[in-house]
Amino acid sequence: MNFKFLNKGFTLIELLVVITIFAIVLLVVSQVLFSTFKGASKSEAQDKAKRQGEQAMAVIERAIRNARTIYTCSGGSTITYQEPSLSTGSFSCINIGSGSGYIASARGPLTASDVDVASCSITCEMVNGVNKVVIINVSFASKGTAQILRVEERGVISLQSRINLRN
């Protein structure tokens, strides 16, 4: 009787080594995939915060640059100005640091509800006794959604603008 075919299988140690190698490879691959997805989420959140921030800053810059005069620039979070049409306009930083901060104009919020204004300051510099330069520093952060729950995946961008009045 020939028993040579019985020696053609794998030993238990060989099977355990192969299973261990596959487990390590799967662990490494899953970590790479999770890292990639996390980076993509952060990039998307950063892009959203940047778009919203730049849009809000553009509206503020255009309005202040065309303002006839600055009435008040107080408290570091509010500015009131006279528009070219002689009506009064304003911008205010509301609920800053609460997780639901936004920038408001006399016409309503400038930022969407999915973006938080984390910090905001509005200061004015006087030239010849008149407020002629407005400096705005704002940090925008994307809020957590179903896709973005982790703090390290939150997109944050800081923007600064120095605006000279034309008039």
TrEMBL record:
Q: Which domain of life is it from?
A: Bacteria
Q: Where are the transmembrane segments?
A: 12-34
Q: Which SUPFAM superfamilies is this protein grouped with?
A: Pili subunits
Report if keyword Metal-binding is assigned: no
Its annotated compartments are: Cell inner membrane
GO CC terms for this protein? plasma membrane
Q: Which UniProt keywords apply?
A: Cell inner membrane, Cell membrane, Membrane, Methylation, Transmembrane, Transmembrane helix
Q: Which InterPro entries match?
A: N_methyl_site, Pilin-like, T2SS_protein_J
- Mind listing the GO biological process terms from this record? protein secretion by the type II secretion system
Q: How does it sit in the membrane?
A: Single-pass membrane protein
**What is the official name of this protein in its record?**
Type II secretion system protein GspH
Species source reads Candidatus Blackburnbacteria bacterium RIFCSPHIGHO2_01_FULL_43_15b
